[in-house]
Amino acid sequence: MTNEFSNQGNEPTYRSGTAARLAGIPVDTLRMWERRYQVVGPQVSARGHRRYAAEDVDRLALIKALVDLGHSIGTIAHLPAARLHEMRAGLMTLPSATQPRARGSSIVRVAIVGEALAARTAAVASRFPRLQIVGTCADREHAASTLRGVVADVLAIELPALRDDAVDFVDALAAAVGARSAIVSYRFGTEAAVHELRRRGHAVVRAPIDLAQIESLGAALPAAPETVAAPPVTAPPAPRFDERSLAQLAQISTSVRCECPRHVVDLLLSLGAFERYSAECENRSPADAELHRHLGRVAGSARALFEEALVRVAQAEGIALPSAAV
Fold first, then answer.
1. Beta-sheet pairing, 108-113 with 154-162
2. Burial level of 238, CB count in 10 A (0-12/13-18/19+)?
3. pLDDT of 252 above 60
4. In the Cβ-directed half-sphere of 136, how many Cα atoms lie within 13 Å?
5. Directed axis angle between helix 54-68 and helix 81-88, to 10°?
6. How far is CA 35 from CA 20, 29, 32, 77, 195, in A?
7. Res 230: pLDDT
8. How far apart are CA 295 and CA 286, in angstroms?
9. What CATH code would you report for 1-99?
10. Pairing of strands 181-189, 108-113
11. What are the φ and ψ backbone dihedral angles of 38, each rounded to 5 degrees?
């Protein structure tokens, strides 16, 4: 097996396939950008192979991010790295036709994961009044517990190595804090992981990133779907039947011609079980807890309606009910 990178001097260099994968672009795109626009100037080995340094890969990833935001490759291919970073950080405006969706004056809540990223953002957070850092965690292993109860619009996470198993982790952590999407920065990673994260709606860029980039990339992320507020549901009454009484009624109903009593009993048992499940279900955030409370109230209200229905069915079929339940 050939090495994906080699050391020439003190810095590693990469073959074109590896460099393209790390930058998040197809090999054909890399070759076209090089042939038409000379975006990078790779070394050439003694055998005639192109070798890309880490700074070449960073430049390719930076240009790719700007192209994704709407810039023409021909207008940015020859710009210096400092200028490209300024554009990506939002210090230069995009043409109106390609301007990302604006947030107006609303505050964007950001959860930060990654020791270096947390340190960089803490030092300059006051310079970004539109961003509110609602939680930070130095390492991914403790992120779920550290950020428990945190509610964020965007999750920003920095990973030194982006492997395939990180995809589900990022997805789950974003959902846990209520974020619509995540901004994932990485130094090295697999093409499959980068592609899958982007397919799921997350932004994936080369590390390092800062708050200016988070603000810019966050504006380009897809907006959270609008939700319609559910009508309020009042607290349901206490159950009229316990499981033992329902089980007895189900047995009695088999002796009559109509099967409605047994069907209603089955529905009551299911609704009661779901009502209890909603009350005991683990909550990952305040929004999650409110959802489960709503589901429990809905199940309880349905259970109360079917309890009334069971009384009417039992009366119609001449079935005796427990005296406490009438």
1. parallel
2. exposed
3. yes
4. 13
5. 40
6. 15, 10, 5, 12, 25
7. 52
8. 14
9. 1.10.1660.10
10. unpaired
11. 50, 50
- Paired tokens of 230: 């559910």
What are the residue boundaries of the structural domains of the chain, listed by start? 1-99, 102-224, 243-325
3 state DSSP class of 242: coil
In 180-280, alpha helices (H): 191-199, 211-220, 243-253, 260-280
pLDDT surpasses 70 at 91: no
Under 8 Å CB-to-CB from 61, ≥6 apart: which residues? 22, 23, 24, 205, 206
Q: Residue 17: what are its φ and ψ, rounded to 5°? A: -65, -45
Q: Which CATH number fits domain 102-224: 3.40.50.2300, 3.40.605.10, 3.60.20.10, 3.40.640.10?
A: 3.40.50.2300
Average pLDDT, the chain: 78
Higher pLDDT residue, 298 or 234?
298
Residue in the block written with tokens 């070449």: 56
Take residue 284 and report the two structure tokens written for it.
């990952």
Q: What is the pLDDT of residues 12-39, one digit of tens each?
A: 788 888 888 878 788 888 988 988 889 9
Enter the DSSP assignment of 48. Answer: S
Longest dimension (CA), the chain: 97
236 has pLDDT over 70: yes
Helix, strand, coil content of the chain in percent (nearest 5): 50, 15, 35
Q: Is residue 159 a contact partner of residue 166, using CB atoms and an 8 Å limit? A: yes
Question: Is pLDDT of 258 > 70?
Answer: no
In sequence order, the 6+-apart residues with CB closer than 8 A to the CB of 291 are none
Choice among 179-193, 234-248, 276-290, 294-308 with the minimum mean pLDDT: 276-290
How far does Cα 219 stand from its chain's mean position?
Answer: 15
Q: Quick count: other Cβ atoms within 10 Å of Cβ 141?
A: 9
